[in-house]
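Two folds, back to back.
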Amino acid sequence: MKTYPHLVFDIDGTLVNSLPVHMVSLKATLRELTGKEYAEENLGFTFGIPGVDSMRRLGLPDPVAAQKLWTEWLHREGGGGADIPLFPGVQEILDELRERDVHLGIVTSKTWFE
């Protein structure tokens, strides 16, 4: 079996189940910016791409400001940001990899601030 000395994981949807929180905070952001309610089935494309790209594709006039508001919503009480759980078994896998001296890293495409 081939082993790797370094592994990098995406965080959203791989290590943590962030989809529910992603949707709650995104819908609240869009409601605040547009006054409209968006159905989750129309927002699924936003999961896994950078937030600014999501806001651009949603047609918001200032995608960077919209992304910043989205991040603020994520950290507000009720925004859910503190309630993002690991997927079952992730902690055990990471512990096992550390015991095998594998160097671990995480990445995300969600936020980018200039």
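---
second:
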Amino acid sequence: MSAKLKKEYVHLYPYMATIILGPSGLGQTNCFLKYEKIVKFLNKKYGRYLQRKEKKDFLIEELIYSRKCHPLSVGLIEINTIWKTERFQIEAWLFGSDDDIHIEIEYYFTPTGSDVHKYEEKQLNKVL
């Protein structure tokens, strides 16, 4: 699969990282299988997921398709799985857009009070 990494910072403090997998390597026949492999890997790393949501558009009942992933690629299905750890919230998304299929894994840093204090102290020391 192709992969991209995007990182976001707030005042030089890491806030979010996003890994985007696809569209190459994800197709009409393997999208759910690949997503389940990613979920299995994240379960192994962070423990069983906390929540899973599947959003289906009502138009899916009107669609005639021969491949399981086709409704996903046209945006009629979206799956989101969420994990929470002490310092991160991790979300894995399976979705489609413009006939492409993507898996996104987002890491949100959720700092505790001590983490913020350490950051402010480092910044203060840097300024001094």
